[in-house]
Design brief:
alpha/beta; six-stranded mixed β-sheet; five-stranded parallel β-sheet; 8 helices; 31% helix; binds flavin-adenine dinucleotide; binds nicotinamide-adenine-dinucleotide
């Protein structure tokens, strides 16, 4: 009898959690499991702002996939997925074609530019480990060039961060600590450097607890970060960004670096399938299957689920992606044993947003936390993600221990 084949696309939080749980719940001969990922490594997307600012080496943000999978039970293929044929049940990649009985699509997020002119071309996005490393090097290049050029263009030293959501704020927190180091390294007076966060909504971290938002803004402002609130970016050019200030008034900020952190969408490969989607995110059934496709599971940032209490979508987070991975592994086992699937119910523990290495804000189990305590919790959350996938050895190798 032919064993069922399970294809998992993407080795981010969702895909890798699915695979390590399948390894646990399925016997060696129960299924042919194949994991396909673009790189031979997994990167911690939730640490990318640190690699982008240069406060953490990009090497520390990633680890080899082979270190956490059981090669006897799972075949890993390094390949870039090019198309998913959910009718013909096959996937095309730059490393061959793969067929499946069940597929788990966990291809993650892409930066959303909302069609705003120039952003795709002139802004950088904290989208993956290579992009984060590029941002770090770009900022360093601007500082080095300013230092060396005889006629100085101070706008090289302006960094614009588009969007004051969690990604924008966490990146600003790292920059606040990194800029003084860069000034020292490249002989740049601190007062020449501007870091400006441009946010469209009337507040920073729209919808988050106002007291915690005030804490974050005061902390960042005290370290020289500027905020331009209620002023959407409407265009990016090679020189900087145009922002809208009031009905008919526009302003232009010249900048050597523009980092776009104003929202995410799902992976665009989803848009080329017949599955109904919104910005490449699929409103999945309660057991995380794509409507109308019993053999297709979609998890992580490519999936959309409505929180029935608030009637709004759950935010795309690593926390949810990992829980979905566990759920899918269980459901795949059930399907193979002829049992019914169970619905996915998110277990939200809270949100902690770092403000650099030494400070943070958050709401954990309904309680507000700030300062070193919150920062400690954030590091424990980061270490827990490593533990859940790679156990204690991975925590020892890649974990965050600078917690005092
Ligand atoms: P991803 O983690 O994006 O993984 C997708 C994988 O698919 C990657 O390995 C990628 O290389 C691979 N892939 C993509 N395209 C292809 C292709 N065509 N072929 C082959 N492989 C491909 N969430 C939290 O819960 N807490 C946080 O503190 C937090 N902090 C964040 C900080 C930052 C800076 C950012 C950007 C996000 C943060 N998030 C956080 C959100 C979280 O990172 C995402 O929700 C999470 O990464 C989604 O997991 P995923 O498995 O869906 O996708
Ligand atoms: P987001 O959608 O949460 O925030 C984007 C921000 O950009 C919003 O404040 C929005 O008003 C603003 N914006 C949109 N268009 C704009 C424009 N034209 N000009 C200026 N500002 C504009 O996106 P994100 O911060 O990238 O977060 C993505 C997901 O990752 C979220 O689900 C978030 O919860 C999660 N995340 C979590 C953490 C954490 O838990 N610590 C950290 C980072 C990201």
């Amino acid at each position: 009898l032919k064993r069922p084949s399970i294809l998992v696309l993407g080795a981010g939080y969702g895909g890798l959690t699915t695979v390590v749980n399948l390894q646990k719940v399925l016997g060696t001969d129960a299924a042919d499991i194949t994991l396909i990922n673009k790189n031979e490594y997994h990167y911690e997307s939730t640490w990318l702002h640190e690699a982008a600012a240069g406060t953490l080496l990009s090497e520390q943000v990633r680890y080899d996939i082979k270190d956490v999978i059981d090669g006897v039970k799972v075949k890993f293929v390094q390949a870039t997925v090019e198309a998913i044929d959910v009718v013909g049940k096959k996937v095309s990649t730059d490393n061959g074609e793969f067929t499946y009985d069940y597929i788990v699509i966990a291809l993650g997020f892409e930066g959303e530019t909302f069609g705003i002119e120039g952003l795709d071309k002139y802004a950088l996005s904290i989208a993956n480990v290579k992009a984060a490393r590029y941002i770090r090097e770009h900022i360093e290049f601007q500082f080095a060039t300013w230092s060396a050029e005889p006629v100085k263009d101070d706008s090289r030293l302006t960094i614009i961060v588009g969007g004051a959501g969690f990604t924008g704020i966490e990146f600003l927190g790292e920059l606040a600590n990194r800029v003084p180091e860069l000034c020292k390294e490249f002989d740049v007076p601190r007062e020449k450097v501007r870091v400006v966060c441009v946010e469209a909504a009337p507040m920073v971290l729209p919808g988050f607890d106002p007291e915690l938002v005030n804490y974050a803004v005061s902390h960042l402002e005290s370290k020289g970060i500027e905020f331009s609130i209620g002023t959407p970016v409407v265009e990016a050019t090679p020189e900087g960004v145009k922002i809208k200030k009031g009905d008919d008034h526009f302003d232009f900020i010249k900048a050597g670096t523009v980092v776009w952190a104003a929202g995410v969408r799902g992976n665009r490969l989803i848009e080329a399938t017949p599955i109904e989607n919104m910005r490449a995110r699929v409103k999945v059934d309660k057991d995380l299957r794509a409507p109308g496709y019993d053999d297709v599971f979609i998890i992580g940032d490519c999936a959309l689920m409505i929180n029935e209490e608030t009637n709004r979508p759950y935010p795309p987070t690593a926390q949810i992606a990992m829980q979905q991975g566990e759920n899918v592994a269980k459901n795949l086992k059930s399907l193979m044993s002829g049992e019914t699937t169970v619905e996915f119910v998110p277990d939200l523990k809270g949100t902690v947003c770092s403000l650099g290495d030494d400070d943070a804000i958050g709401v954990v189990f309904g309680k507000k936390v700030t300062g070193k305590r919150a920062s400690f919790m954030k590091k424990m959350i980061d270490n827990r993600a490593l533990f859940m996938i790679g156990g204690p050895m991975l925590v020892l190798k890649k974990g965050k221990f600078n917690v005092l």
